[in-house]
Amino acid sequence: MFTEDLQCKYTDNSVIAKYSVKYFFAMEEQRVNKIKHIRPETLEFIVLYHQLRGKAFNGNAELAEILGFNSPSSITEIIKNRQNIDPDKFRTFKERYKEFIAGETVPEEKLAVEKKNFIGIPMYEIIATASGVEVYNDVNDSQPVGHMNFPGIEDCDFALPVWGHSMYPYLENGCWVALKVISDKKILPGEVYYIEWGDYRMYKRLLASDKDDEVIAHSDNTTEMIGNRLKYAPFVIKKSEIKKLCLVKDIHKKHNH
């Protein structure tokens, strides 16, 4: 494992912010059964799960339906430390069972230790091209190439690189993007998202459509033309066809000198 400190500049509306970013790159020799770093909300969920099972809910099938999981096995994977819980689902869990949770306590020392040991969000080398020409691959089928860690991305879920130029200048080819999974698929018009749609994955600015069940996928690069047509023309997507929706929370561009 090695660590590389980078001073990255991010420009937005002529405001330049400097970040000290640590990238931890470590290739894993083999797949392990348990995740190496449990997030604080996952640890809290596991503790509350054992405290509330049989009291607030009867089993994993009931809990999975309430939290919107496709299968009770998703709960098992979290309880056995094989994956972290989605922050939005954890908030749903706490809101649904707040009356039961009020009478329970979560060991602060455990939460403090896990927060201290947080090494960052996993970085995947899967090509997520801004021009949207790459065939979809499940990020969960890949091994992380490292971790991204700096203040402000603690609630993000993973990071992907950008390939292509359709979202330039907002997203530059080769930059890394910190993403937060939006489980309820609620879209804020005008924001930039990473989406898995159909057989493709892409970064797009999603705009409101005239129809409630559709959004317009807009590319920020409106200068490149093919003949008299935009190379990256906007197009309509059915909301129901979006497999995964992730909000772009932070961007780290290549440092050029």
UniProtKB/TrEMBL annotation:
Gene3D superfamilies: Umud Fragment, subunit A (2.10.109.10). InterPro entries: LexA-like, LexA/Signal_pep-like_sf, Peptidase_S24_S26A/B/C. This is S24 family peptidase. Pfam families: Peptidase_S24. Residues 122-222 form the Peptidase S24/S26A/S26B/S26C domain. It comes from Mucilaginibacter ginkgonis. It comes from the Bacteria.
